[in-house]
């Protein structure tokens, strides 16, 4: 039996009192000290792990002032906190053992846009892509660019002075900050305005200005000697630019890259840049990465807006990734081989390309360049594909098989581009000495390369090697006049600040820190440690995720790869409502309810389980009959999340829609639905299930029986008293009506479409060659039979002979709810049915995307093999492709596809297949992106999830449907039922429209 796992590391009395005090001051946001949330925020995209005391989610600036005011009270001056942005730091900048201040949940509003002044005011939780999407209609953008732009917040970018592609032209974030509103540890908000016409600062800021000027004046000689002359200048703290030649203080240059150690940013006023409207991108091929690097100095002379490079390791991994098909024709050598490296050289201008583009064009066409070949990408689609290849470098490296994973601890060193090739050769020699694999990519126009050596930090020797490599690379970078840390902050590499700066300037850093934060309560230990030390300087020997993961037995780590391999990249925090991953996070803004959060909770659960001397292999899922377990669980007492950590993990898993977007959209392929089902099976071996679980476990067979008397069943479901019982006792709401007739009932009128072994035996060869087998699912057969009937009739209208196989339960609901023994038995029964039909050698198609695709993914895991049933649209597109087009396509779009998110993510050809089918019949089908509808099978029918389900629907579907001029077509049953529930509309399946077109 699953043992009790009391949550570890309960808050001490001081931190509990602090939380109570902040609440008493009128904090209006959210405060979360649950262990599961703390575990989620204990990691970011770095290798390190530090458990925070809790997290404050402020709703506005006044909430930040309340937290800071509590810090200022004498009894709480031992308490400290760190602000956190998108959680994408690769070196642990915001990890803390104190409290976390996270503005991403509530303070994510674009306050105002002034297109004429080219200025925008944003709250710190606004995401970069979110901002640029809003600015696009004004033909403006925020120029600093970072790879995780879909989840990186502007507050986080300010705190790390973020930059990326194009920084040689556009600079860093601090170059675009006009003003900030900050809260200091005095509990008050202050304005730091860098504009020439700024009003005089308040007394506190004026005093800081004076102190900073004094510090800079006293150390000008050392600053000039120590700070390297690089376009990628040194941030954290940027003493070289904090005071200009006229003696004017620029405190925002210190805030930029300060990692939250100086102030809590509550608002930013940012400078905007006109969007280049003329762009060309060259993909230059090389035999080796060294050749690509050595060509950088010559390429810079053409003055492009960016030069990015990708090495042979990343190129090799790309071949096995879907991105490769989009870029193959642009990067492959003439013989079809992958080049040793690629340089991407971009020119962007306003109304006209810079003249350097024509000069490079001439050089390439005259074979005067150092590349072995090139491709000029002019279309936006081509450029986007090439940049996706470059931006995908981190994800491609993260998918490296094996226990050793590429890690970001020396990935943002910078040197003068003129010495980059020699520097990288020496860098590689260090890595080769340790025998570690690695990949390289990055911004060679500014001499900054991202390097990720592959290590297994569950091995203490590899933890030691990580520190040794860092120390040696630090010396190497400095010997070339460069920096160890340039783009991603200091974080746990802060220990190298003292030897780099030397005692005079290190002391100056401490003086700067005291001027802003005299009690050292803001992210102490990062950048500089004050004397006496509240927290030691952040160092590379800090605990890593591997430190904790090695406490989990190796076999257990292997059994749960989805949870163990999450590297915290945060792709599941994508802000875009049209992105399919992750709907539960996007609706709740709760990071626990994301793949990253669920993987973090699962890893910790496995660790705590191992600490009891047990593993999941020692636990046995419940095997007694479902009816007996349901009777046992009736009236079970509610669980206390604080009594057993397993309850908190259950809460995280229960919020998952099992849509499987994470299994394909996460760069690391964190497959939450799989380990969710495994966890639920073990958890409910001890703890009671919600009553709805048992009702849903019998959904498929129950619907088949109810469909025999649909009128009676539907009448009963309309009775208010019965609906209240369903909601109150079973936890189910808005039950759908059964179809009249159901598909099996309709087939009685059309027996020629019913498959039986006898009907097959009576067919001649011609009939058999035109046969297509249709497999039923409970959703379309019993709840939406008109769709299933349309599919059958469409197959017949195309000249084929549809044969509908008698209904057999797939077990999909059993898998979702973690009834794994029952699911395996059901899957084996269903497999026998499918495989017997498959022996006839004719196509087998499924209608409902989630069920059809489960016969591949879920069945592989449960019974060791996939079933040969393909999505209907794939067969349809192929079948139509064998026929001549029947109609000339209309020029204007008339339909828009709202595809099922599982089909979009697990069957990449699904939308294209539907579009091709429509085109063949003279119809135009738009296939734009839309997020999750929020229903996901029965998720939206569970009372405890109804509000979240509706919130997910309103994120993208509600607005897009309302604005959709073309008629929406919806292949997924769940999606159609969600539209019916919240918009009282009947959405058509694409097959229904195609059938009507054929009949017309």
TrEMBL record:
One of its GO terms (molecular function) is 4 iron, 4 sulfur cluster binding. It comes from the Bacteria. Residues 48-275 form the FAD-binding PCMH-type domain. Pfam families: FAD-oxidase_C (PF02913), FAD_binding_4 (PF01565), Fer4_8 (PF13183). It catalyses: (R)-2-hydroxyglutarate + A = 2-oxoglutarate + AH2. The keyword Oxidoreductase applies. The keyword Translocase does not apply. Keywords: 4Fe-4S, FAD, Flavoprotein, Iron, Iron-sulfur, Metal-binding, Oxidoreductase. It is an enzyme of class 1 (oxidoreductase). Its cofactor is FAD. GO terms for biological process: lactate catabolic process. InterPro entries: 4Fe4S_Fe-S-bd, 4Fe4S_Fe_S_CS, FAD-bd_oxidored_4_C, FAD-bd_PCMH, FAD-bd_PCMH-like_sf, FAD-bd_PCMH_sub2, FAD-linked_Oxase-like_C, Oxid_FAD_bind_N. Its EC number is 1.1.99.39. Residues 647-678 form the 4Fe-4S ferredoxin-type domain. In the N-terminal section; belongs to the FAD-binding oxidoreductase/transferase type 4 family. This is D-2-hydroxyglutarate dehydrogenase. It comes from Salinisphaera hydrothermalis (strain C41B8).
